[in-house]
Design goal:
The chain is of the alpha+beta class. It is globular and about 60 Å long. The N and C termini lie close together (about 10 Å).
Amino acid sequence: MIGFDLDDLCTDSTNRASECMAGQTELDGVDGIDNQFGAQLFPLVNVAVPGLEQHARDAQTAGNGLPVLRMRGWNGTMNDPLVDITITTAVYSTAGTGTTMAPALMSTDAMHPTLANGMPLPAPTWDGQDWTWVRDDSFVAGNLEMPLVQDDQAYVTNGLIVARIPARIDIIFPTSTVGVLVRLTDAVAVGQLSSDGMMLNNVVVAGRWSEADLLSTAQNIGLCAGTPEYNILVSELARYADVRSTPPQPGDPVLPCDALSLGVGFTGFRMRIAGTATGLAILDECTMDGGVPDGAVMNVDAGVDAGIDAGSSAMDMGLDTNG
């Protein structure tokens, strides 16, 4: 029930049509929804890496590693034909203090950030006044005005925000223990803006995740080449791949499926961007290469996104995973 009909086909018990040659033709979800990753593969990964989903939820609830959707150029209404959407990731977040200034930090270490008085950052309260520091590697040279994941032709229609995600751009989902590097093609992010502009409901990020890109992140969660768990993952990918990583065009030959459809659901809460920070590295859990980078000096920009009232030009949403 989470995702979209990516291949424009409704594969059910009476119609086994597919855009590619699948190892095993699987039935679509509700109204043709394609989400083989959620329906078939993730349950297997969650068994191989116990608690992966819960670790991700816990980290994001604490304001760490959650995706952040930033909307600028918005006219403040439920219909806007052109908005600028950036997708980045929070390093850490904290509750607002009732002012328009972000709290000063003493330590910017991604694992142990502290306030100027040396105390740990209070957890976000999800009341629309929280502050977040986003990954500097989501931007060119850490410049908030030069995002790497951007759709400057996104739009809002009847409160529904729609943005395309550039193909195979790195989207990082770290926790304090493991992390996942996602590269999607034909991807979209959609969410329903609440009437007061404070939340995004029923947010869905959907797309095609190629077998090669999916396997390349396996070591980041401890599924190591040559192990029985990794071999099972390889065989299951061949079995459940249901789409092409590049959507075929009319007249194209029917080729083997080389990607899994994916859909992930979120709920979004308004946040304010305080600046950028160096995030946790995505580790190779099989060789333990990579390390955790030291904390970086913040580029605090407390006035960048101070509100989303009617007529405001910017909005940031922290997305808390719900499925």
